[in-house]
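Hey,
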Amino acid sequence: MVTKHLQKDPRFNHSMLLFAMLTTWFKELGYENKSKEFIFFSIYPYSEIFDILLLNIKNLEYKKLNITMIQIAEDVILRLNKEQILANTDF
């Protein structure tokens, strides 16, 4: 899935992509909210990271790249979530 997105534009920021994936998985979808990884992630000031990587960036190309990483992350994680839901559905 990530490869498909990167075929269109191979530039990527791996830090922002992974951070956005974790944010989508933990915060937006609420998975693993009792795991130690979730606890560590929750106490980390993730909003500050987004501010640094999006709001405080003067370079518009880098900001655009980071927004693209968020879009890719959401696409990948939401699709994974959909596949997981379908796999757990009995017909």
